[in-house]
Write a structure and sequence with these properties.
The protein is an alpha+beta fold. The protein has one domain. It is built from 7 helices and 15 strands. Strands 1, 2, 4, 11 and 15 form a 5-stranded antiparallel β-sheet that branches. A 4-stranded antiparallel β-sheet has the order 3-12-6-7. Strands 5, 10, 13 and 14 form a 4-stranded antiparallel β-sheet that branches. It is elongated and about 70 Å long.
Length: about 300
């Protein structure tokens, strides 16, 4: 929030009571829950060469439950353009490290604008969510979070030979990483080798793709009040600026980089998945009455 008021010093700071929320109706009110998949309005593939801004809009439908609203997307990580490069490539802790700036907008008015979002997320992750005790974190698969786990070191060969036990990085070995340290493509890397058809011709096989599902750390999406999007005319949106590869990719490399294209990443198949609750007209009547009389 400090960043928001630094960029918009004239914005009013409205404090909402911690226990304030739009109450769920009694069982006499009919309700229907839907979870649509909403794609961005400005493209399909995002990255350094494809455009780094992602915008998704909430539909003018029902009431959104923010605590069960998530963003899901595929990330393709690409190593050096030389397939035999002696390298390890992985993302910084927490896949949201690729989000440089995140904000939600109502029309053209920013409601919350967080610059250096990736730094904040990575700090909170390192302080609270990762461990160095050799066990997997519960959020590893969905959110790209992981410390170290007990694994095996490998020696090149056909087949590869397990040469000893060691602590290995969970993100490198099990979530999303490229490991060519034994001069064999994909050696010791994550076995998920699927590449989107739009990307294969450009980035070849020295890449891996993983799907993530995260909860954005915006104040609007971490509070318990239902968001009345049916009255907001599709004006509520989330805008994300992607970070440059230098800000979010971890890369130890042995060798010369002369003439090599550096590692990079792409984001594609982006979908906002809000939990939308539709109530019967009696709840809408109660909501409008409360809005007009005393606010909700």
């Amino acid at each position: 929030m400090a960043d928001h008021f630094r960029f918009y010093p004239n914005a009013e700071d409205t404090i909402t009571p911690w226990n304030a929320r739009y109450q769920y109706p009694s069982q006499s009110n009919a309700a229907r829950k839907v979870t649509p998949r909403i794609p961005p309005v400005n493209g399909m593939v995002f990255g350094a060469n494809y455009g780094k801004y992602i915008k998704v809009q909430f539909p003018a439908q029902g009431y959104v439950n923010p605590t069960n609203t998530t963003l899901t997307f595929d990330v393709t990580l690409t190593g050096f353009s030389n397939p035999s490069a002696d390298e390890q490539v992985r993302f910084q802790n927490n896949i949201q490290s690729i989000f440089k700036r995140v904000k939600w907008m109502y029309g053209s008015t920013p409601g919350e604008d967080i610059d250096d979002y990736n730094v904040m997320v990575r700090n909170l992750t390192e302080w609270t969510a990762s461990n160095a005790y050799g066990t997997m974190d519960s959020t590893s698969i969905n959110e790209g979070i992981g410390g170290v786990v007990v694994g095996r070191t490998l020696t090149a060969g056909t087949p590869p030979v397990q040469s000893g036990a060691a602590l290995v990085n969970a993100r490198q070995a099990y979530i999303q990483g490229i490991d060519n340290t034994d001069d064999a493509l994909g050696f010791g890397g994550v076995p998920n080798r699927y590449n989107h058809s739009l990307l294969t011709a450009t980035y070849g096989t020295n890449a891996c793709t993983r799907r993530y599902q995260v909860s954005l750390m915006l104040g609007l999406l971490t509070q318990e009040k239902l968001i009345p999007t049916k009255f907001m005319a599709s004006q509520l949106s989330i805008e994300i600026e992607l970070a440059s590869p230098e800000e979010c990719i971890f890369l130890p490399y042995a060798g010369t980089t002369t003439g090599l294209a550096p590692p990079t990443y792409l984001v594609h198949n982006v979908q906002l998945i809000p939990e939308i609750i539709n109530f019967d007209p009696s709840y809408d009547e109660m909501f409008i009455r409360g809005l007009s009389q005393g606010g909700v």
